[in-house]
Amino acid sequence: MADKLFDMVVFVRIVEAGSLSGAARHLGLSLAVVSRTLARLEARLGVRLANRTTRTLSLTEEGSAFHARCVRILADVDEAEIETTRGRDTASGLLRISVASPYGHYRVLPLLPRFRERYPRVQIDIHLSNRNIDFAGEDFDLAIRGRTPPDSSLIARKLEDAELVLVAAPSYIARAGKPDMLSALTRHDCVHFVLPSTGQSVPWLFRHDGRDIELSPPASYRCSDDYLGTVILARQGAGLLQTYRYIVQEDLAQGRLQELLPEAGGRSRPFSLIYPNRHHTALRVRALIDFLLAELASERRQ
Would you say residue 28 has pLDDT above 80? Predict the structure, then answer.
């Protein structure tokens, strides 16, 4: 195991330095040792990790993927040592997070006071938004989004699969009736959320005859930026809405909204923690990641 960690450290330094000689200088090793280490690592894995000449080095596809995993593993090792020697309560400083607005309101914000009870020296700056963010330019530590990040250099860890449900208010159903099949959706008023990043309505997801299908019925209302605006419209009888069950579960229980076409339900969207692929992840960031993963997993088991 120690040899494997040593090989990972050398490989990460090679990538950071951009050359075998640069890594050797940084690590205080001979060029021969660094070269043999990379060759040994490639032999053990059975793949070529880097294309190298006397002056340049470029990662292969396998090398790029392995580098990302090595960085994460070494960061975990560093954090484990810090937590063991200094204690978990040493997490401190400003933590900047960006959270998709509905998920933030219903799933994350209720948990944060409990997090600060455990880590009182951490201050949290919360940004509720559905747009893409620039980690480098906007100095965020962590984001939570309901889609795969376009930047493959970011680490994504799934928090949960959020179930989708089709709903409408009793007042709308009394006026327009219930759709009895998916093809009937085109005859109803529909409320859509528009993604800020694309300007396009989010498609609705259903399951029919054992197949997953995606529909975009005509929109009578298109709501941008604030996702919760779609729920308010639906409550007021504006039309049909596909939304997350965690948002409307109380509305369903109290009868303010009714579930439609449950036989076509069961689809979900994943929500993930997203953060930069760094060699050193701040203890406060690691603490929040571990906390959210544990808390949301606990809620799913209840």
Answer: yes
